[in-house]
Structure prediction request, 916 residues.
Amino acid sequence: MTFGSVTVTMLGLLFVTFIIGRVMPIDPVLSIVGERASKSTYDAVYNQLGLDKPLLVQFFYYIWDVLHGDFGTSLLNARPVADDIRRVFPATLELASLGVLFGIVLGVPLGVIAAVRRGSWIDQIARVVALVGYSMPIFWLGLMGLLVFYGILGWVGGPGRVGIFYVDVVPSVTGMILIDSIIDGNWTVFKDAFSHIILPASLLGYYSLAYVSRMTRSFMLEQLSAEYITTARVKGMSERAVIWRHAFRNIRVQLITVIALSYANLLEGSVLTEIIFSWPGIGSYITTALLSADMNAVLGGTVVVGLIFILLNIFSDLLYRVFDPRAK
Amino acid sequence: MTLLDVENLWVKFPTRQGIFDAVRGVSFTLGRERLGIVGESGSGKSMTGRAILRLIRPPGIVTADHITLEGQDLMTLSERDMRDVRGQKISMVMQDPKFSLNPVMTIGDQIIEAYRLHSKSTKAQAYDKAIAMLEAVAIRDAARVMRAYPHEMSGGMGQRIMIAMMLIPNPKILIADEPTSALDVSVQRQVLSIMDKLVTERGMGLIFISHDLNLVSEFCDRVLIMYAGRIVEVCDAANLHEAQHPYTRGLLNSLPRLDAPRKRLEVLKRDPAWSEAPSVGGRQ
Amino acid sequence: MSETQTLRAWLLTDAPTSRRHAKLASLYKGWLSLRSNSMAMFGLAILIILGLIAAAAPLLAPHDPFFQDLGNRLGPLGAEDHVLGTDSLGRDILSRLIYGSRITLYIVTLVALIAPIAGLLVGTVSGYAGGWIDMILMRITDIFLAFPRLVLALAFVAALGAGIENAVLAISLTAWPPYARIARAETLTIRSSDFISAIRLQGAGPLRIITKHIWPLCISSLIVRVTLDMAGIILAAAGLGFLGLGAQPPSPEWGAMISEGRRFILDYWWVATMPGLAIFTVSLAFNLLGDGLRDVLDPKDSGQ
Prediction:
C-alpha cells in the first residue's frame, strides 16, 4: 500500500461511518436535550452540533475531530468515547494477542508438518481441525467451553477478567492485567487472571490456528515442489534442513501477512467472544453501545477497529519489504 | 575406468489409470567421459538422472538391480548415507537457474552451504573457496556476486553460479539436466564450454541430458538415445550421423544441416514397435 | 440398460457434436469427479436433507414452534413428546430447529444472490472499463475490505434497525468486495484474449460482451467462492441473531435460540447446545461441498 492509497482508504472508512451516523433513525439532538426541550433549546443544540451546515462541511468537522482523537461523547454515560475506548482496548488487545500467540505456536508447526507429510494421519487431523474451526460458531463454542471447563470440570475461572475479589487490586499500568500483575509482583492476581483468560484465549487461538495452519500448509506445499528444494537435496542436505532452512525461509514473508490478518480477524472475533465471557473489551463496548443506541460509541469503536485493520495491513506490508529481497 | 554402473533401472508412478513406467529397464555405465542422454520430453531421460541421485519422491518407485558407484550399490544405502553421496560424489545442475536457486538466500550463503555440508572448514575458508570457485566459472567481481540475490543475476550468470555451487564439493560425477535450455542462445556455448573445461580438468564423469542432438554430439563422447523410457540406441558422438535406429534417424532428418542443406525437413514418423523393443545396453 | 449405457457414452465423448453436447459432457465429467469425493458428497447430502426439512417443516415438526407451555419449561432431552426438550417458554426445541432451517436457508439464499451479483457487476464493469472508473470502483472495494466485517455489519444493522432483512442487507454489504475482486481479475484476463477481439470485430458492443461472454466465464470461480463463503454467511447471520440484531423473537432463528439458551447454560445445557449443533452441521456441510467444488472447478488452488 502506498501512502496515498492508505490515506484514501482511511478517508473512505471515516466517510462510511459518517454516513452510517447520518442515516441513523436516532435524532442526536433529541437524545441530548430530551423529549420535552423547547424549540429554542433544540435549535441551539442543533446548531451547536453543526447539523445546520452542509453535509460535506459536517464531514470535514468529523474528520477534524477524529484526527484529534475526539469521537464525541457517549450518550449513555456522558464521558468522551475516546476515553472509554482507551480504557477497554487493552483488555481486547491482551485477549487477542494471547490468542494469536496460540495460533502461531501451534498452527505454524502443524501446517509445516501437514505439508511435509502430505496425506498422512497428521495431515488428516490438521484438515479436520481447520474444517471444524471454519464451521463452528465461535460464540457457541465459547458457551460449550464455559459449560465443560468451568461449569462441569471447574478447571478455569468463569466469565470476566478476574474473580470478584481481585478487581482493581493491582494498579493499572498497561491495562493488560497479566502484565500489570507481573509489574506489581502480585502472583495471586496473576494466577487468577490467567485462569480467566485461558479459556477465551484458547478459543480465539483455535480459530487462529485453523487459519494459520491451513495457510502455512498451502504455502509450504508450493515451496516444497519448487526446484531449489531439489537443489538443496542434491547438495546433500538433511530433509530437516531442506524444510526449515530452505522452504520455510521462503514462506516467512507470506506468513507474516497471514498472521497480521489473523490478528485483525481476532480483534473482530473478540466481539462475540467478549460477550460470552463478559470480557470488558472493545467488542463488549460496541455491542453494549449498540443495544442502547449510543451511536457515538458504536461509530467510535468501529473507526478504531477499522484503523487498526489498516495499520496491521501497512505493518505487514512494511515487514514484507524488509524480509523479501525481491521487494527492494 | 568405470565410475558408475547402472543395471536394469525402472522408475514407476502409480496413477489413477494404473502404473506409469517412466523409465523401463535402462542399463549403462559411465567412465571418465562425457555421456549424453538424448530424447524428447517424456522419454525418461530426466527421470534417469534423478533416479541415480535417488531424488524420486514417493509415490514414485525406483527399482534397479544395482546402481554401483565405486563398488558401492546406491540402492542399498540408507537415506543418511545417501546424503554423503549427493553433492560430494554426484552432483546435478538443473534446467533453469531462476528456479533452482533459492530466491531469498544470498548466492554466497548458498555456495558456502554447499561446501560446508561436506567439509569441516571455517566460514572464512569456505568464503575464500567460494570466491575462487566463482572465478573459475568466469564470474568477475565475485565478492559482489556473493552478496547478491539470485533475482539480480542474468540467466547465464545464474547457471554458472549453479555450476560453481555443484562443483565446489569436488564431486566425481556431474549430471547436467538440460543445463542450457532456459538460457539465451548467445550464452549457451559459453556456459557449456566452462562446464566442459571444469569437468575435463577434474577428470570427472559427465552425464549430459538434453533434447538437442547437435549440442550433444558436439560436447559428448558417447550418446544414449532414449525413447519411451528405454535406450533405443548407443553410439559414439562422432559417429552420430551414422546412427541406425529409425527414431534417431528421424530426429536427425528433422534437423537442418549446414553441410547438407535440404529443401524440406522431414517430420518424425513414429512406429509403436520402437517402444515395445527391449532396451539396448549402454555399457562399455 | 443399454439406453443408459449409450447416454453415459454420449456424455463422456471426447468429440462433442454440438455446443450443448460439450456443455453437458463437461458438466457430467465435473459431476463424476465431484461424486468420487466422498466428503463433498456427504456435505451435499446434508444440504439436500436440510432443503427437504425446510420444505416439509409443517409436516415434520411435532409441535407448533411458537406454542408456549409455561408449565413445561426447560424440559430435558428425550422427554416424552419433546425429544430435544423445551426452551424457557416451554416451546418444543426440535420443532423450532426444524422451522429455523427455513430462516437459515432464507438468509443464505438471499446473501448468496445479492453479494455475488453486486460483486460481479462492480468487478466486470471495473475490469472492462479500466481507467478512472476502475480506479474509483476498486478504491471503494478496498475501503469495504479494510473494514472488519462483523463490526461493519453491526454498524449497518445499528443504522438500519434490527431485523432479518436488514441483517441480510448488512451481511451482503460486507460480503461483496471479494467477489468484485475475483470478477475483475477474471475480466482482465478474458478482456485481452483473442476471442473477445474477434467478437468486437464482429461488432459486439460492451454490454453484449460483458453479459454474453464475460459473465458466463466468471461464474465458475464465483460459485466456488460463494459455496466456501456460505459457512461464513451462516456464522455471521447466527452471530447477528445471537446479538439480538438479526431475526427478532419469537422467530426460531438458530443464533437467537442460542442467545436465549445462554442464560441457562450451566443448568439446562441442551437449550443452547442443540441450535449450535444445527449451525455447525450446516456450515460444515457447506465447507465440505465447497472444498469438493473447488477441486473440480478450480484445480489450481486445490488442497490435494
Observations:
- Residues 87-220 of chain B form a domain with the Rossmann fold fold (CATH 3.40.50.300).
- The longest strand of chain B covers residues 2-15.
- Chains B and C do not touch (no CB pair under 8 Å).
- Chain B has a mean pLDDT of 85.
